[in-house]
Sequence to fold (336 residues):
Amino acid sequence: MAAAHEASEHAGRAESTNVGATTLEQLDADVTRIANEYVHVPPVPMMVEMLRVRRRVYRLLEGHQRPADTGHLYLLAGTLSGLLANASTDLGYVDAAGEQARAAWAYAELCGHNGLRSWTRGMQALIEYWSERPRRAVLLAQSGQQYADSATARVRLLNIEARIWSRLGSTQDTERCIRAADSAREGNSLDSLHDEVGGVFGFDQPKSHYYAGATYIHLGQAQPALEATSRAIDLYANGPIEQRSYGAESLARVDSAAAHLINGSLDGAAEALQPVLRLDEEKRIAQLEERLTNLRQRLTRPQFRDVVEARALDETLEEFCGNTAAKGMLPPDTQR
Fold:
């Protein structure tokens, strides 16, 4: 009888939980809201919100809940860590981004969620790419494809891989990935992170064109870069306002300017940059500074070296890069 009482008491404790259905629904709603608002709201206030929600998830994990609910909380913690990794890159804190991405991967493994696994591998590949470790980046992008259960996840990872191969100067591998991405886009499989949550985790048509533009710039192919960036800008400008990613659109405009410079058109480059130069300081993400620095290097080439308008544009870009969201605006506890 004592054994029966022991079993009954243990089962009673196992049934107890500090997490109700409403709590999980609210946390899911918070994550979806943050992921979708992030594309059109400055990174610093969104990072504060990410930290607030993740701390709540951590507090719940310190208590007791049913195993299924624990897995759900791990997924939420991993998703928020992924969002923080993305925000950290936008603010130029690549080491912090790497730490957040490793946490996201650990949580993805704990809850066995392939959508989070594949997205995180893509994020890690991008971090290595920005850290000048492209060969490591390729391996991570390829690794993520084994977990890509949805068409969106596959298209994203193949676009990331194509971009990295173009950085390495391999036209053959770049074109192979672009063809594979075009083929994957015809699929109709979905996953809960890329397609249901979306926002930062999605990879829609305008973002795909933006990535293509960046890829062609690495290869020095001006015309396809102009076509891709023009398509991305048009889709962002004329699409739903809540899906208009100011960061991706601005970077597409910088890549468009780079393509114009490859063609020798200083006027075309200056025109492409005008909307970027009007961007609020709090939205001037770190990738913009990096991309504009590369653009300024193009302005030092012999064909522009003694052109007054080129020097004036360079001075404008220097001033712009001196006032960005990445300088001195990181909120506390970002790596926790």
User: Anything to note?
Assistant: Residues 57 and 73 are 6 Å apart (CA to CA).
